[in-house]
Amino acid sequence: MLNVLYKVQARIMGVSLTLFLFVFATYQCASAAAAVKTYGYFSAIYEDTGKMPDDSNDPGEFGIPHLNLMFQSTISNDFRTYLNLFADGAEAVEIRNVWGEYTYRDYLKFRVGKLYRPFDLFNEKLDALPTHNCIEPPELFDKDHLMIPRVGDFMVHGTHPLAGHLMKYSFTTGNNEVVSSSKPVSWDLNYNPGNILIGTSGYYANEKAGSPVALGDGAPTGGILPWMKSDKYMVLGGYVQAKWENLLVQAAYWTADHKAIRDTALVRTLSTSTYLNADQQKRFGLNSAVLNENGDHTID
Questions:
Q1: How far is CA 262 from each of CA 50, 148, 153, 211, 258, rounded to the nearest angstrom?
Q2: Which of 73, 75, 49, 74 lies closest to 62, judged by CA?
Q3: Are 224 and 295 spatial neighbours (Cβ–Cβ below 8 Å)?
Q4: How does the average pLDDT of the chain come out, rounded?
Q5: Residue 36 host element (H or E)
Q6: Helix/strand/coil for 115
Q7: What are the beta bridge partners of residue 40?
């Protein structure tokens, strides 16, 4: 079954046309051994700027700024696999997720591979939908300043009935933030009594190799700042979601406590390569003879 929904929005400013194409496709292929489901969406844009002031004709531009394809295969009642492909600008394809899962019972499942850790209401869902009825993007997973790494490599999870409803748990480990011997752990526990979902998540890491992103090379892929030599930190919080007819209410609170040590050489590089206000200079100890290595900080 293929359902296609497209929306064309024309704006006349000179001659300008913006085309947004959203494709939702569900395809199921069944055989004696496996069933494969494919889901995906992409956006396409065409811009025609018309006649330019220098009398040259611009032929316009066509692009695919966003593409997501997801494949799930059910090999047996006990084993399934998942693949999530992403392309930003449709120039290079990135494997966001690839994992296999074995089910012993509903209350005990094992997942191995490159996987999104269950955390908050959104981490596992961000790629599945093109838009979200929530604060967009969720601040916890804002790509400009992530509070935790989104990806792990091993998870134990399951569901268990409680008072007529389901309680869901997960424990995830795996170091996707830096290459070191540290193995951070995260956990998620939620309970869904009818129209209300109540949950809590946590993450703990003791990274001694610093940030995986060099200073000046962009935003970190987790909670460690680029000028830190080491960082031991924990993120804790909770969330709630309530539904009443067509009304959806979501709320969450998170706090991250960091016990970090700054790399003084990187701090000096930072001070000469960018503007630091008076409070930042004081915090780094740039106004004193000895730089302040204490990088402890809390984020709420």
A1: 53, 19, 28, 11, 12
A2: 49
A3: no
A4: 78
A5: strand 35-47
A6: strand
A7: 25, 69
Instruction: Round to whole Å and give the CA distance between 184 and 270.
Output: 28
CA atoms within 13 A on the CB side of 245: 0
The answer to whether 261 and 226 have CB atoms below 8 angstroms apart is no
pLDDT digits (tens, 9 = 90+) for 106-122: 999 999 999 999 999 88
Q: How far apart are CA 240 and CA 57, in angstroms?
A: 54
Radius of gyration of the chain (CA): 23
Contacts of residues 121-129 at CB distance under 8 Å and 24 or more positions apart, as own/partner, are 121/197, 121/199, 121/239, 121/241, 121/250, 121/252, 123/150, 127/68, 127/70, 127/84, 127/86, 127/96, 127/97, 128/39, 128/70
Whole-model pTM: value is 0.77
**Positive or negative torsion for Cα 127, 132, 135, 137:** positive
CB 39 within 8 A of CB 26: yes
Picking from 59, 4, 57, the residue whose alpha carbon sits closest to that of residue 27 is 4
Using the structure block, give the residue that is written with the tokens 């046309």: 17
CA distance 237 to 199: 9
